[in-house]
Amino acid sequence: MRLSLFGAVLPLLVIAAGANAQSLAVGPGAATCAQFAEAYAADASSESQYFSWAQGWLSGLNTSALGKCGRGLTAWDLGTVPAGVQMTAIRQYCWAHPLDQYSHAVTAMRSWFLKAVPIDGTTDCKR
């Protein structure tokens, strides 16, 4: 029985993996801006789930940038812009670009604020 169950489930896992192979984001970041706007309109507190995802995404981008040891990548000090201002920027982007993914809104917001307070990517290099 276990073998037949495994045989039935394995192809489904392979199909699911293939369908998502090109996804750069999962969770709230994979939603469109229109989906975010709809959730926000129905319940403004839903934004906290999206923004929590955004903070993780941004932290990952910073970690990646700092790990490149000065190869032209720049990290951003997330504490320089208040969370409320970041959320407003993401909301405004999403309202203007409903077909884009929420992750694109977060990346655009990062680009805007990165110009204000960048962190030199060579700071944590160990040579």
> Regions with pLDDT < 50 over 5+ consecutive residues?
1-21, 121-127
Give the strand tally: 2
- Indicate the multimeric state: single chain
Strand content: under 5%
Account of the protein in words:
Helices cover 59% and strands 3% of the residues. It has 127 residues and is mainly α. The protein has one domain (26-119). It has a two-stranded antiparallel ribbon with strand order 1-2. Helix 2 (33-42) packs across helix 4 (83-96) and helix 4 crosses helix 5. It starts with a helix and ends in an 8-residue tail after the last strand.
Tell me briefly what this model is.
By secondary structure, this protein is mainly α. The chain has helices spanning 2-19, 33-42, 47-66, 83-96, 102-114, and strands at residues 75-76, 118-119.
Topology at a glance:
Layout: H1 2-19, H2 33-42, H3 47-66, E1 75-76, H4 83-96, H5 102-114, E2 118-119
Antiparallel strand pairs: 1-2
List keywords for this structure.
127 residues; 5 helices; 2 strands; disordered C terminus
